[in-house]
Amino acid sequence: xxxxxxxxxxxxxxxxxxxxxxxxxxxxxxxxxxxxxxxxxxxxxxxxxxxxxxxxxxxxxxxxxxxxxxxxxxxxxxxxxxxxxxxxxxxxxxxxxxxxxxxxxxxxxxxxxxxxxxxxxxxxxxxxxxxxxxxxxxxxxxxxxxxxxxxxxxxxxxxxxxxxxxxxxxxxxxxxxxxxxxxxxxxxxxxxxxxxxxxxxxxxxxxxxxxxxxxxxxxxxxxxxxxxxxxxxxxxxxxxxxxxxxxxxx
Amino acid sequence: xxxxxxxxxxxxxxxxxxxxxxxxxxxxxxxxxxxxxxxxxxxxxxxxxxxxxxxxxxxxxxxxxxxxxxxxxxxxxxxxxxxxxxxxxxxxxxxxxxxxxxxxxxxxxxxxxxxxxxxxxxxxxxxxxxxxxxxxxxxxxxxxxxxxxxxxxxxxxxxxxxxxxxxxxxxxxxxxxxxxxxxxxxxxxxxxxxxxxxxxxxxxxxxxxxxxxxxxxxxxxxxxxxxxxxxxxxxxxxxxxxxxxxxxxxxxxxxxxxxxxxxxxxxxxxxxxxxxxxx
Lengths: 250, 279
Description:
The complex is a heterodimer of chains A (about 250) and B (about 280). Chain A is α/β, with parallel strands linked by helices. In chain A, about 30% of the residues lie in helices and about 25% in strands. Chain A has one domain: P-loop containing nucleotide triphosphate hydrolases (Rossmann fold), CATH 3.40.50. Chain A contains 8 helices and 11 strands. Chain B has a single domain, classed as ABC transporter involved in vitamin B12 uptake, BtuC (Orthogonal Bundle), CATH 1.10.3470. Chain B has helices spanning about 10-35, 35-45, 50-55, 60-80, 85-105, 115-120, 130-155, 160-165, 170-190, 195-210, 215-240, 245-270, 275-279.
């Protein structure tokens, strides 16, 4: 890690209509680092991502995001019956830098094609988005973020619903993007994915812990506080598992 | 085939339905993708009291329809903001109230004869003003959809992500509803209060069967709407059926014809899925 951190948060509280959904958040993230954001549904992961995007101003504390950042949302939120190609979706990333009356032209679409090439989907650029596999859709949304020249990528549950092979391909891509000096924040439920990151931030309405995964995830107390005690030991030494919560994120 | 074109009333009717078809067909693609088909139907029905008042006062229908559309939109926004009243219920209450008010006025002793043309359209009675309004509608819809295309596409794809791209979903939806209101006010002269929704929904639904891309869908819907409307008018001319209803039925027939073509197209693409083509 070199230079100024990409994200600095200190005593941060954020939420809606003046009421905090998360509070006491303290962490830093440097260039080239990956951060797993662990927490239950409704625990404030999406709120923190929105605060990092600048959509929710801090209610308390301090937050500095030193790079253009871009959200890679859950693929479930996008419509599969929608008449767009992978290239159309990637090209949407150029909208923020275009005047309001202009859409992506030839130059912008060439940039979107390069981003799709970068995530290994160059050959599928003209395919309908809804006909791609879950992993390919996720990579298309990452390409859209790359088109925005984002130095910081915020991925919301990127591994949900992916098979093992797609998850491994995505993991490798995230590693490469971090290797290029980008910061990556990924909100996840998956402890195993969290272990592959440089840092872990556990939140459940407030910050529970922050640090390298080897320290944070070794502490059963941290996991219980993060997930409200729904930790179970798998019989026969199979390790620990978290019972999935049943309520939905907002 | 060319015989109907020699009649001036038929020339006007053809020009009217082609213009309204092009504008309504293209706009309808966004209406359908945004899930506004019910809003389109509701909006048309809500205009009814305005049309009746204009007919009673003997002024152009546009002058009655525009304030009625505005009143309905405000009433829906107000009703939907009342606690425990969902948007669907709010629309239903307002539409029924407005339509009931229109029927009450239409059945009053002061109402002029021929009020049924407001419900079912009077495509053979369009005047120069109506044609000018339809031509301006094509221009407005064409320019607005061209300028807003990228943003409408982003919001329809994923509202939350569009916000992160700096695109306001509220702005996109209001712009679309405003265009829909203007198009309804203009198209209601030819197709009538009860049938006008066909021009927004049927060609767009047909185009969805025939293409998986937005721009081709816009073109297909506009062309299909214009062609089907022409076919409907010819049917009306030769079979002596009601003009607005014939056009509406021809629009729906275009959708029914597109269904098997869509099924065939999907089956062909299933034979060669994208994963197979990557290797």
